[in-house]
Design brief:
globular, binds ligand BJW, about 20% strand, alpha/beta, about 240 residues
Length: about 240
C-alpha cells in the first residue's frame, strides 16, 4: 500500500558507506581503496592516457569483485521507500556498483558512472559491459581499438546527469545523505544547494560525522544497514 509521507519530494545521495555493509571497500576509510591505490595512478584522465593497462586493470578487478555481492538492508530499505511512499523519490548515487538496482530501486541516477558499463571515447556510445576491458578491446559500433574505457567519472571530469540532479535538489523537501564522507564535489555541495532553497529538511546518515556534517539539520550516526532501515520505517510510519 502506498503512503503519503509528510515529505513529497525526497532526494537521497548515497556514497560508498552504504555498500560497505555488503562487503565493498569505501575509498577514504583506513582500509579503503585510496589507501592501496594512488588516485593519480587510477582515477584521472591523465592516468588513463599514461597507463591504460593499469587503469583498466584496476576497474577490471573491481568489476570482477562485484560478482556475488548482494544489497544489504540499507539498499532494500530505500527500495521499500520508493515502493511504499506516494511522493517522488530520487536516489543520486556516487557509487559505481549495482546494488541499488539489485535491491529494486528504479528512480536512480549514477552520477559517477557504472562499473558494469563501458564507453567508446570516440563515439561516446555506452554499452553494458560485464567483461574485462584491455587496450585492444574493440568498440562494438565503430570497430576501433584503444577507445573503450570504463563508464566512470574520473577527477576533473563532469559528473553525469547534473541537470536532472540540480533540478531535483531545487524542488526537494527532504534531502538525505547516506554513507558519504563529503570530500568530493559537486556531491559534497548538494546540501548547501538544498539549504539555499529554504524548503527542505536535511539529514546525514553516516558511520561518523562527514566533512560537511554541521550543514545538516539532523544527523544520525551508525552503520547504514542499521540506521537506514530504522529511518525509513520511522518515515513510513509517520505517514
Ligand atoms: C559508512 C560505513 C557503514 C563507512 N555505514 N557509513 C571544489 C568545488 C568543485 C569541484 C572541486 C573542488 N575542489 C576540487 C574539485 C574537483 C574534484 C574534487 O571534488 N576533488 C576533491 C578531492 C576536493 N571533483 C571532480 O573532479 C568531479 N568533477 C567535477 O567537479 O567537475 C566539475 C564540476 C563543477 C561543478 C559542478 C559540476 C561539475 C568528479 C569527481 C569524480 C569522483 N570519482 C571517484 C572515483 C570514480 C568512481 C570509482 O572508481 O568508483 O568517485 S573518487 C571517489 O570518491 C568515488 C566516490 O564516488 C567519491 C566519493 O566517495 P564517498 O562515496 O564519499 O566514499 P568515502 O570513502 O570518501 O566515504 C565513505 C563514508 O562512509 C565515510 O564517511 C565512512 O565513515 C562511511 N562509512 N562504513 C555507513 N557501514
Amino acid at each position: 500500500m502506498s503512503k503519503q509521507s509528510r515529505f513529497s519530494r525526497i532526494v537521497i545521495l548515497t556514497g560508498a558507506g552504504i555498500s560497505a555493509d555488503s562487503g565493498l571497500h569505501t575509498f577514504r576509510d583506513p582500509d579503503g581503496l585510496w589507501a592501496k591505490h594512488d588516485i593519480n595512478d587510477v582515477a584521472t584522465p591523465g592516468a588513463y592516457a599514461r597507463d591504460p593497462e593499469r587503469v583498466l586493470g584496476f576497474y577490471n578487478e573491481r568489476r570482477r569483485n562485484l560478482a556475488g555481492v548482494e544489497p544489504n538492508p540499507a539498499h532494500h530499505a530505500l527500495a521499500r521507500l520508493e515502493k511504499e511512499c506516494r511522493g517522488d523519490i530520487l536516489i543520486v548515487t556516487q557509487n559505481v556498483d549495482d546494488l541499488h538496482e539489485k535491491a529494486g530501486s528504479r528512480q536512480l541516477l549514477h552520477m559517477h558512472g557504472e562499473l558494469r558499463k563501458a564507453r567508446c571515447s570516440h563515439t561516446e556510445d555506452v554499452f553494458v559491459w560485464p567483461d574485462d576491458l584491455n587496450p585492444t578491446t574493440q568498440c562494438p559500433d565503430c570497430g576501433r581499438t584503444g577507445v573503450m574505457r570504463p563508464h566512470i567519472v574520473w577527477f576533473g571530469e563532469m559528473p553525469l546527469e547534473m541537470d536532472r540532479i540540480e533540478s531535483a535538489l531545487e524542488d526537494c523537501d527532504l534531502f538525505l545523505s547516506i554513507g558519504t564522507s563529503g570530500n568530493v564535489y559537486p556531491a559534497a555541495g548538494f546540501v548547501s544547494s538544498v539549504r539555499m532553497t529554504g524548503k527542505a529538511h536535511t539529514v546525514e546518515l553516516n558511520l561518523e560525522p562527514s566533512e560537511g556534517h554541521s550543514l545538516f539539520a539532523e544527523q544520525i550516526y551508525g552503520r547504514a544497514a542499521q540506521v537506514v532501515p530504522d529511518y525509513v520505517e520511522a518515515l513510513l510510519s509517520k505517514s
